[in-house]
C-alpha cells in the first residue's frame, strides 16, 4: 500500500488522519510506504524537458521512482487539505509529473485508455461543514482527484471529507477515527 501525504505539517486534521491511519494499519498488520511530499521538499513544477512533446520526454529520477512504486501497488491512500476547492499545488504537480501518458494512460486513437489499476481512499479536510462541501461545493476537491485524475488512469476511488477542520477537537478526532476504521473496508484491509 502506498500513502501519499500532501500537507505542510502534521499538527492539524490531516496530520491526525495520517497518525490515526498509521496506527490502524499497524494494528491490522498492513505494510505501507509513505510519500510525504512536503517532507521530501517535492518540486511540483514540471520542467520543459519532462513535458510530452513530439513523442519525447525525459523522466526525472524522482518521477521514475514514484512511477515504480505506483506500478507495484494496487492500494493507495491520499491525504490532503481542500484549499480553494481543490488539492494543494504540490499534489497537483505530483499528478502532473508522475501520472504521465504511456505510464498512467494512453490513447487508442482519440479515446483515452487507463493503464493503472487499483483502489484509492482519498481523505481531505476542509474548514467548511461537510454538508456545505457536498451540497454547495459539490465535493469538487474530491471529484478532481478521484474522477478527473485517478479514475482517468484506472484507479477507482472513494472520498472521505473531514469538515469543520478549523480547530482539532476531541469531537473531530473521534470523527476521524471512526471514518478511517469504516472506510478502510473499501480497500479490503
Give a verbal description of the structure.
A 5-stranded parallel beta sheet has the order 2-1-3-6-7, with helices on both faces. A two-stranded antiparallel sheet has the order 4-5. The protein has a single domain, classed as Rossmann fold, CATH 3.40.50. The mean pLDDT is 92. The chain has 6 helices and 7 strands; from the N terminus they run βαβαβαβββααβα. The termini are close together. Helix 1 (13-27) crosses helix 6. The chain has 189 residues and is α/β, with parallel strands linked by helices.
Give the strand order of the largest sheet, numbering strands 1, 2, ... along the chain. Answer: 2-1-3-6-7
In terms of quaternary structure, the protein is single chain
Major sheet size, sense and barrel closure? 5 strands, parallel
| Regions with little confidence, pLDDT below 50 for 5+ residues | none
CATH class: Alpha Beta
In terms of DSSP E residues, the strand content is 15-25%
State the share of residues found in helices, binned by percent. 25-40%
Amino acid at each position: 500500500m502506498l500513502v501519499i501525504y500532501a500537507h505542510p505539517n502534521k499538527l492539524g486534521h490531516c496530520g491526525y488522519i495520517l497518525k490515526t491511519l498509521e496506527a490502524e494499519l499497524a494494528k491490522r498488520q498492513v505494510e505501507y510506504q509513505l510519500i510525504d511530499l512536503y517532507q521530501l521538499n517535492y518540486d511540483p513544477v514540471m520542467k520543459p524537458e519532462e513535458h510530452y512533446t513530439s513523442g519525447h520526454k525525459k523522466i526525472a529520477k524522482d518521477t521514475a521512482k514514484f512511477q515504480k512504486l505506483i506500478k507495484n501497488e494496487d492500494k493507495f491512500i491520499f491525504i490532503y487539505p481542500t484549499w480553494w476547492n481543490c488539492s494543494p499545488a504540490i499534489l497537483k504537480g505530483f499528478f502532473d509529473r508522475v501520472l504521465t501518458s504511456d505510464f498512467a494512460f494512453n490513447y487508442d486513437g482519440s479515446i483515452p485508455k487507463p493503464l493503472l489499476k487499483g483502489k484509492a481512499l482519498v481523505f481531505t479536510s476542509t474548514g467548511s461543514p461537510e454538508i456545505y462541501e457536498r451540497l454547495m461545493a459539490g465535493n469538487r476537491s474530491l471529484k478532481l482527484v478521484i474522477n478527473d485524475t485517478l479514475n482517468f488512469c484506472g484507479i477507482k476511488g472513494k472520498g472521505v471529507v473531514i469538515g469543520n477542520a478549523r480547530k482539532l477537537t476531541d469531537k473531530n478526532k473521534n470523527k476521524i477515527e471512526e471514518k478511517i476504521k469504516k472506510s478502510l473496508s473499501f480497500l479490503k484491509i
